Task: structure prediction
Amino acid sequence: MSIRFVDLEKRFGDNVVLDGFSLEVPDGDITTIIGPSGSGKSTCLKTVIGLIRPDAGEVWVDERRVDTLEGDPLYEVRRTVGFVFQFAALFDSMTIFDNVAMGLRRTGELDEAAIGERVRESLDLVDLEGVEDKMPSQLSGGMRKRAGVARAVALRPQYLLYDEPTTGLDPVTVTVIDRLILRMRDELGVTSLVITHDLESAYRVSDRLAMLHQGRIRWVGAPEAIRDVDDPAVQGFIRGEPELWEEAS
Ligand SMILES: Nc1ncnc2c1ncn2[C@@H]1O[C@H](COP(=O)(O)OP(=O)(O)O)[C@@H](O)[C@H]1O
Ligand SMILES: [Mg+2]
Result:
């Protein structure tokens, strides 16, 4: 049971974004893909739930190949994969309760009482009690982010995908979100795939780091190991030296 990317290729026009991208996300762990803005991180994350289709290669969730799925089978896979969007992506005209309840209502499996219970449980998990009736605009950026996590876990997914969970937040809120990512692993047992260019946050939450460079994974390993990796691309990224990064091939 895991998420696997096998030899993905993706281009937008002349822009080759993924070029032989392969990675396995082991069960129960937090795997983080790091790389600069524009390197293709969101693109690979979106292939997992069918928001972007690769030009070639395969994406697997457990035993299901998802890159070619459509309709109900794709929807079934999406239920097992919670997605925390970069800017929380809450619906502004809906209360926090309705935002978190949306996916649950769509399945039609729970009655309103059970949905209410699940929404409150999910908000408790992210330390957001008592905001059910508020609108997204009434919450701080960090609270909106947490509400986005609550919505992603409401269906009790097996996997959680986080797109830049800490980008644009103040340092204290970054720590809150980092702890939340760890808590989702520890309390819900979810397998997590995080993408970020925030290295400090990546060091804190990851069981495994994977560095994306020129459309493919350049290096995978334990966070403690990355500083000693003898590769100009890796060193260029972690030390913020664009010349090393760009010249590495
Ligand atoms: N839907 C799209 N249409 C055209 N170009 C896109 C689209 N999505 C992403 N791109 C381009 O693909 C590259 C990688 O984007 P993205 O995956 O969002 O990078 P990252 O998340 O690492 O910042 C960028 O050059 C971006 O402009
Ligand atoms: Mg992105």
Remarks:
- The longest strand covers residues 15-25.
- The mean pLDDT is 93.
- The chain has one domain: 3-247.
- The radius of gyration is 18 Å.
